[in-house]
Protein 1
Amino acid sequence: MSNCHCSAVEELFPGGQKKLVLVGNPNVGKSVFFGAWSGLYVEVSNFPGTTVEVMGGKAGSWSVYDTPGVYGVGSFNDEERVARDVILGADVVVNVVDSTHLERDLFLTLQVLDMGIPMVVALNFTDEAKANGIEIDLPALTRELGVEVIPCAAVQGKGIAEVLEAVERAVPGHPTPEVEKRVTALLDRIDMRPEALMVAEGDEVVALRHGVHLSGGEEGREAIYILRRERVNKLVDEVVKRPHGKGRVRDFIGRMCLEPVSGLLILAIMLLAAYQVVGVFVAGDIVAVTEGKIMQGLYEPWVIGTVSRWVSPESFLGAILIGEFGLFTMTVTYLFGLLLPLVAGFYVTLSLLEDSGYLPRLAAFVDRMMNGIGLNGRAIIPIILGFGCVQLGTITTRILGSHRERTIATAILNFVIPCSAQIGVITGMLAAIGGVYTAVYGASIFLCLVIVGTVMGKVVPGETTELLIDLPPMRIPRLGNIARKTVMRTFFFMKEALPWFAAGALGVSILLRTGVLAAWQTALSPLTQGWLGLPGEASTAFVMGMVRRDFGAAGLTSLSLSPWQTVVALVTMTLFVPCIASLMVLFKERGMKQGMYIWVSSWIIAFIAGGILARIVL
Amino acid sequence: MSLSELKKGQEAIVESIPEGDVRHQLLRFGIAPGTKVLCHARIPFGPIVLRFGGQEIAIGRGLAKSLKVRPGSLKKAE
């Protein structure tokens, strides 16, 4: 029992070094400290039993861990549980706080103080606080907390080295006296102070680990939280001086994002800009070079030539390695020629939206609309991502508050949202047939979104959580941080996508070689001909669409279709099943059973919607 | 009155917060009984955006209905 608090962390990152843990609210710049200290050699692991990632690295004689951004630690969600367990195993905590947001950030600071873990406070964004006329009485804050407080402007590199230096002499600070009493009362049963605090706060998981029966946990948590909140408020009153009189530019912009008319206008501009960057520039111009010129033009002929020297391209092994869906041909081309630039482009856009402070305002702005389909405003984030790549969106549904919301959002992503690769092909085909047809396509998809969302909202059990979201100050994003985030996220995304996609490609190769794929195409053609009113060859496109969404759409371009047939085909293809890689992520995130439900349902929805549309227009 | 009834620009003092997880989340953000808040924006039919201290938070309409407040400023609308 005595070492149980470290076990999860030990398991993740074994080694006897002393543990330095970075803790802070979301978007306070923890990752900048982590990046600066640990350099490029970073390990990322899924924390046992969760989907939350913890990053580990080395800084001198320390093992450094970055935790998910949280407002407090406890057992409310996976992020908090992970942050809690990593903190409970810490030798020293570096708490990064935002100088412009101390009322919020000091709550977590005091929670760590109450744990009695040696700590250093990194007072970040001091440059910004100064620019906003916020004055912080550093000596008074240091005195009150009882730990070193170091002013930083991490993105400019200020204070980063000083904090690491201070870590060597870190001490536990002054806990909240009344909380201290409650913790001390538990120390006869729980010999570790940090754990004792969590139990005093009614954390059932930690209590269970120590075999302590918890009574009045809710009451304990409430009392401690109120005491801590009072102390934060008092502290902020004493040490923070804010200028009076508002109306600063960024306040104005922040408010504009929330007003109905200007909010809608800003949203439209943002979407258009994102579409221009990701949909047109990256998916079009850049991918034409990376996929077409580099991968298909140079890499594939080379790899086919090289492998053919040992393995005949006609053999079974040859088909698997360098065939149409080969592991060295299509898999590599798809991953690096198409997915990599798209995902990187998307992450740049997302990081810009995130760091600017726009995303939470957008979540608030669309909250009411999202309520209509059983979600809250937060769900706009995975859905926006889904337009880039459904896999990204599906993974990001983790941020949603309840099982019900994750299910609905995942279903919507996999049913209705076309990914950027597909959007590229679809816009090309729609542009060729023009206005009315495009409008009918758009309206059909939107109608399906509304119907699917409304039905899911009624059918999926559970509760939708209410929106409660912190709106950070609007900021001009820093390029360095955007670049760092993009590189990290893209790398980890690729790492996750690679094995799944390779497995999918392998499966298709085998189906192709064994003739199952051809049989499938034949079986499907009555449906495409009879029901959708499309030429028989369209069934090939649908089979391709199961592998990759844009393959499916691209497969339609070679057919001779009337404009209305094109609309029917495109609507059906948009609603059709997610690509193999997305399907794999879907299984991983939502389980085999739900994944299969979604996959089978998207067949049904796509063909019902396409068939109805065909009855109307053809 | 409930928080959802606040008008834009109106100040109020929080009187009570509903039980449950959301209560703890609000306490962490800095909203407790006695906190003085300003209704910074109201999104039509949607969330209420509060400003207090140096912070802004958006609260879904349903949740805002269950938070009780008492108007705490002289420059009340009406």
Note: The CA atoms of residues 4 and 37 of chain B lie 13 Å apart.
Protein 2
Amino acid sequence: MRNPVLAATAAVVTLMFAGCGSGSSGSPDEIRLRMIESLTGPERTKLIKSLIADFERANPGVTVELISPPLDSADQKITQILQTKKGLDVLEVRDHTAKSFSNNGWLAELPTTGWPGWQDLTELAQKKAVEVGGKAYLIPYGFYQRTLFYRTDFGMTAPPATWQELYEAGRKMTSGDRYGYSFRGGKGGADYAVMMISAYNGDALNPEKSFYLKDKRTIFSTPEATQALDLFVKIFKETSPPDSVSWGYPEMVQGFTSGVTGMLIQDPEVIKTVEESGVTAWSTAPIPKGPTGYAYQPVGYAGWGVTSFSEHPKEAVKLVQFLSEAKQSIAFAKGNSLIPISRQAQSDPQFSQGAWKAYLQAQQDPKQVITIRPVDYPGWSQFLVDSDRDIQALITGKKTTAEVLKAWDTFWVDQAKKVS
Amino acid sequence: MRTFTVRRARFIALCLLPGVVFVVLFTYYPMVRGAVIAFQRYNLFDLTSTPFTGLENFRAVLAEDRFWTALRNTGTWVAVSLFFQFFLGFGLALLLRRHFRGRGLYQAWVFFPWAMSGFLIGLLWRWMFNGQFGVVNDLLLKAGLIEERIGFLASPGWAMTSVIVANIWYGVTFFAIMIMAALQSVPGELYEAAAVDGASRLRRFWHVTLPHIRPTLALIVLLRIIWILNFPDLIYAMTGGGPAGSTDIITTFLIQQVIGGDYGRAGAVGLLILALLLAFSIFYLNATRFEKAR
């Protein structure tokens, strides 16, 4: 190339793209996998890295580079990388991203036959692995199921079994700077309203499509939904700190551990946080029920998947399987206070004693029902954003119960038409 | 001679090339792509079919009350933040211009916020303004200024005030830095001449300092308006646009479209912001040019 400008251009472009390649390796025999996590946190990342180190020791010649983007923007980052269809082999897939990722052809189907680890997965783990289109696009690493945390030093002898009892107990606890309930009014707040509305709809609800009743109407269209949402507002106004209009996860937990609130409904990962906080007088119970004796909640989950464009699919699958096998998955569930995916964990004392007992109780109660939310409907992500704002508008008096329920009903009636 | 000029031009082009490639790849390409997406049905849920839908995304956005609320909030957010940032920054610059012991250290300390990420600042202020555990409430209670805790981020009126206070704290230093630089560029002889003519300090400021730094002020005010409008980080971390959209500005509204997975609508909002800023910049530059010509 005699023209220096052309030569320089080629050099610059080559240098720029050299850093963008995927699966590039230092030596010809080395295989480098790139893996990205979504629900990042310092301790969790450390744990994943230690499991990866075990994998690398068991698989000489394979190295894994872990990418840990900031929690708040992780899913957007993952989506951006997936859109380029390069530079990624293994990724964390969440319940609400599984459908869109697979729809867009970004996930590879994982082999389940011929892998002994599959048989060791609990029934729930197997079910959730193939929830999207009947194909295993991810292997869950654990489950997030909510439970009621309550402080026994707040004068409570027995936990509330219904939402009405929770409201009454909360009122008793509320005085001065002390409140009954850690209300979630910020991001994710609408989920709690939906949980109450579901419980109030009782056995009319269709657990497989939990925003709809068995007669195909939405759960937001019934008089019971109005009762539930009215009580939801009362719980906020009469038992919760006014500031909780903007509380998210950290404030809720901080409220409970600092002694500002006496009750909290949260995922099992809070068990570890409460244990480490120094609070000693506390216990857990299954989430409250509605008037007909039913409680509904989805089980949140996430897992590991392999990209459809991985340059090393064999090794990527091997890594996912390694992380999902009993030893690693139990270590991960313990480290993150998750409900484990391995059948072998049932004999582990950690998961059958103390605060974990409430989960076993819930599992044994046929009226504590696990539901499936319509995460696979095109408007799901939009609803998450809009419904949280509606809840804030409701509890700050900018919208009425009727307006919120009407809007949600219209939205999901429209979604049903789009899907059918 | 001609060969030398051609060679020189080639050399300059060569030096500029990496920059041009980067700008095209990382600024203009995403911008054009975003503009195209604004006219497509581009929902993250299903990217296998992304047909062109004309102005549909714009119609949907403009039909939303939330968009107009966000637009009104943007006006408050920019105007109030800018007003206080400017005047406090100006005051700070005048103070820091003076020579005193430890000035360098003091300057570094004052300018420190500017070096931090907006999102991080938002998180810090979110905890400071927390109604139950926040330090602001504690201080006000201990000082006897309030009798009960204020839900700074819980009530719509307080929430907007709180995010603006945080933004003022953040942006004052920018004005202080820029105005201080402008002040240092005023020739000392002008002040000496004015002093000889018997001008008071106020008259010197009004007739010497201000005219000299006015072009810089006009430019930094324009820049700051654009930056404040495009600064959702702090609001997003502090309130997420809540409660009930009361702190939503047009750029947090855009983020919500992205999180909702509707990139088409997000693209439309992006283009509307661009049009708004472009129209404002043209108006502002014309207005300040007129001022200069007069």
Note: Chain B has a mean pLDDT of 88.
